[in-house]
Amino acid sequence: RVHGDFTFMRSLLALAVLVAVASAHTCLFAPAQRGPMYDVNTVGTPDCGVFLSKDKPCGNTTSNNPTFAIWGGSDFDVIWMKNENHFDSGNEIGNWTIDFAFGFSDNPDSFYKLWTEADTNTPSLYIYQQSVTIPKAKMPTRSTLRVQYEVSFGTFVQCADIYVL
Fold first, then answer.
1. What is the predicted pLDDT for the residue at 106?
2. Which residues face 163 on adjacent strands?
3. Which residue from 44, 71, 131, 135 could staple onto 24, CB 3.0 to 4.6 Å apart?
4. Are 76 and 35 in contact (CB under 8 A)?
5. How far apart are CA 69 and CA 152, in angstroms?
6. Residue 156 three-state SS
7. What is the DSSP string of 43-70?
8. Is the dihedral of CA 30, 94, 58, 20 positive or negative?
9. In the structure, how many helices (H) and strands (E) does the chain have?
10. 3-state DSSP call for residue 41?
11. Is residue 146 within 8 Å of 57, Cβ to Cβ?
């Protein structure tokens, strides 16, 4: 009986760690991310935590009406925050990626990279800014811009719904 209780407690502990890990990591400010941003200056806020899953390229967020429009072919400064630092000098995987998809596709293969860079040991609550060129559209198109923070135990994402003119 003691072995069964130990196994159950160990399972509960593992679940608690997974919930804590998936709680917070990056917030997207420009363009504005999907979902709320009430407590972004608190390390570990749930508003900055969306975990990438294989079949949901924007995590558990749903697309909204675009809140921002930009001319295709123009440069745009994407601004985001590392809400919680997960830098690991022994891990070569850690990086940031900004990518883009025309439409609100649930197909991860529809996104393509605009920029990527290795993660560094910047502190929690660090603000990043990176200029990217928005792809040209043949006509005004609802699109998705995504920031990914890949760390040793998974990838965190924030998506923004935009119009490309």
1. 67
2. 69, 142
3. 44
4. no
5. 34
6. strand
7. TT-GGG--B-BTTBTTTT--------EE
8. negative
9. 1, 8
10. coil
11. yes
Tokens of 148: 């990914």
Tokens 């920031």 correspond to 147
Q: Do the beta carbons of residue 162 and residue 74 sit within 8 Å?
A: no
* Residue 5 vs residues 1, 2, 13, 20: alpha-carbon distances, Å: 6, 5, 12, 23
Strand partners, 80: 28, 128
CB 137 within 8 A of CB 103: no
pLDDT at position 88, please? Answer: 85
Tens-level pLDDT at each residue, the chain (165 residues): 444 544 444 433 333 333 333 344 899 999 999 888 888 888 988 888 777 777 788 888 888 889 889 999 999 999 999 999 988 888 777 899 999 999 876 677 889 999 999 999 999 999 999 999 999 999 999 999 999 999 888 888 999 999 999
Pull the structure tokens for residue 40: 């972004």
